[in-house]
C-alpha cells in the first residue's frame, strides 16, 4: 500500500501537466482531490463538459453559496479527466459543503507561501518566481515543493477552519486505505501537503475536531465559468491574474512565445491595426533578449507584454489593454453537460435561448432588434423578463434612429446568473411565470426570493436605475484553498432586507411589465400604482413616476400589449402635479432646485407624449391610425382596443389639458422669490412651447440680469435658461447681447464669484456651439471698429461735401 500526495498550485499549467504525467506513471487505483465530497456523483459528467466550469454549492431558499472553479489547466481537472478515462475512482476530500455553508468559513487566512519562497529566492514577484521554477521547467518537482512547504509551515498553527479541512482530508485518506486501495494519489494545494504526510494526528483527534459541526442542507451542480471570473482581480482568491496566458502555456505544443505573439498580432489586426509578420519576428527577438538579460530560462508574460507594447502596439496603451483583455485574461466561457442537474427554470431558459437563437457568450456583443419582426420581439421579451429576475444577461443600449420599434442590447453572460436562476426557481418553472411572480412581489412592496448579489455586483445598473430593488445581497466568490488563498469553499450570502417600493419604482415596474409582456402581473401592478398614487402627497414622487407611466401608455402598443387604465392614472397624476407644483418650488435650496429642474423637464417631455399639441403629427397620425397609436404602431401589430369615450380625451380635450399644464408653468414662473435656476428653466420651456415670444423671454432675461439682482442669481438664471443648449444664443442676437453686456458689466470680484456657474453652464454646450457663440461675440464686438477701419476719409471727403451742399449744411 502506498499513498502519494501531489502538492499543486491551483490553476497552474505546469502543475497540471506534471500531475497528468505523474498519475500515468503511478497508475493509482484511487484518486483523492481537494473539493466538496457531495460533488462525487457529478464527477462522471466531467468528460462531457468544456472548461472553465465550476462546482456550485448552494442552500435552497437562501443566498448562501460557494464556487469551486476548474480550468483546463487546473491540476484537479486533469486528475479528474485521467480518473474518468482510466476507470479509476475519483473522490473529493475537502470539508463537506453542508458544513462550509453553515459557517462564515475563512477565519484568519494563512500566510502567502509563494510570496515567502519567492522572497527567499530573491524575487519580488511570486508569479515570476513560480514561472521560472515550475512553469518553464516543463515539470513540477513535487518532493521539492513538499519540502519547501514543510519549511514554510514550521511553527504554523492552523486556524479552526483550516484545521477542520485538513482533518477531514486525513479522515477520507484513512477511509480509502481501509477500503483496500493499494495505490492512492492525493491531489491538493501544496500548502496542505505537510498536513497529509509524515507523522499525522490520530484519528481520534481528527474526529474530535469534526464532531458537532453546524450543518445545512446543500445542493451541488456544475455551472459554466469564465476566465474573466477565474482571474484573481475579479474576486476569486485562488485565481490567477492571467488565465488566458496559462491556458496558452498548457495547450501550446511548442514555441509558446512565437505562438503567443502571433495570436496577439491577429487580435490587433482584427481591430484594424496594421501588424505584419516582420513585427512578430522583431517582437519575438525582443522578448527573448529581455529574458536573457534578466536571466530567465524562457520569456515570460512580462517580457512578451513589453514586446507587444514596444513593437506591435507602438506604445499605445489602449492596444496593450486590448491584448490583455483578449489574450492575457481571455473571454472563454465553459459549458456543462446536458445531463447536469438543473432546476426547471434553468432548463426553460436553455429552451428559450434555443428558440430565440441566442447563443451564450462571455464576450460582450451588440444585438440590434427590430420589434416588428416576431423573432426579435421574442428576444426582447426574454431579455426584459430576465432583467426582472436579476439576470442582467442583456443590458439595454441606445437605439439608433427615432423609431420606437428598435432596441439595442449588449449581451454578456456571467457565471453567477445560473445561481440567480437557481435561487429564483421558487418563483416558477418558466422564465415568464417566474418574472410574473417577481413583478407581483415587487408590487406588494416585498422582495421575492432571488439570486445572490453576484449578479448585482457584475451586472449592469439597469435595475437600480429604474428604481427596482435588486434581488439578493452582495456576494463574494469562494477561494479554493491554495497557497496564498483564503480557505476553500468559503460561503457567502445572507438575507436581503425587504425593500419598500416607491411610487416611481411602481411606475417603472409597469413599464417593465409591458416591455416583458407580463399580462398576468400587470393588473396587480396597476392596482398597486393607483393605490400608491392616491395616497402619496409628495409632488416630487409624482413627478418622478409620471414619465415612466407616459412612456408605457404611449409606446406600449408597439409590442401589441394592452395596458388599459394607464392613461387615466397618468392624467390623474398630472392634475395632482399641477395642483402641488407652486408649493413645491417655494423656498427650496440650490440642491433641491437642481433636482426639481430635472423632474420638470421630464414631466414636460411626458406631457408632450401624453397630450401632444395639435401641430404634432402624432395627434392625428396617418390614415387609419388613431391618435392613441401616435403613428408609432408598426405594420402588422394589433391596434389598441377602443376605450370608452369618457376615458379617451378628444383632440380638443387633449389641447385643453395641455393648456392647463402650460398655464401652471406660466403661473409658477411669475411667482415672486422663485429660485433663479427654476425660473430660468421655466422661461426656456415656455419659450420652446411657443407660450413666450423671443422678445418676452428677452425681457425676462433682462430683468433677471439687472443691476438690482446679485450676480450669483443672474448666473443661476442663465444656467437654467440655457440648460446645455447654446444654439439659442447663436440664433438670437438680442439674447446674446444681453448675456454679453451683463458679463462685461461685472466687476472682477463679481466675475470671480459667478465663474464656477458660468463654466458649468458653458461646458455643457457642444464644441461647435461654443465655437459659434465665440465667433458671434467677436463679430459683434468688432463690428463698429471694423467699419471705422474700412473708411478712407480722404477718398470720402468729396462725397461728404456734396451731401452737405445738398442738405444745406455748412461746416463750422
Strand content: 5-15%
Shape: elongated
Structural class: alpha/beta
Radius of gyration: 35 Å
Helix residue percentage? 40-55%
User: How many distinct beta strands?
Assistant: 10
Strand sequence of the main sheet, in spatial order? 1-6-2-5
Number of helices: 36
- Average pLDDT rating: 78
Which residues sit in consecutive blocks of at least 5 with pLDDT less than 50? 233-237, 446-499, 613-650, 784-788
Mind summarizing the main beta sheet? 4 strands, parallel
Report the span from N to C terminus. Answer: 132 Å
Structure report:
This protein is of the alpha/beta class and 812 residues long. The chain contains 36 helices and 10 strands. Helix 14 (301-312) packs antiparallel against helix 15 (317-329) and helix 30 runs parallel beside helix 33 (748-763). 45% of the residues are buried.
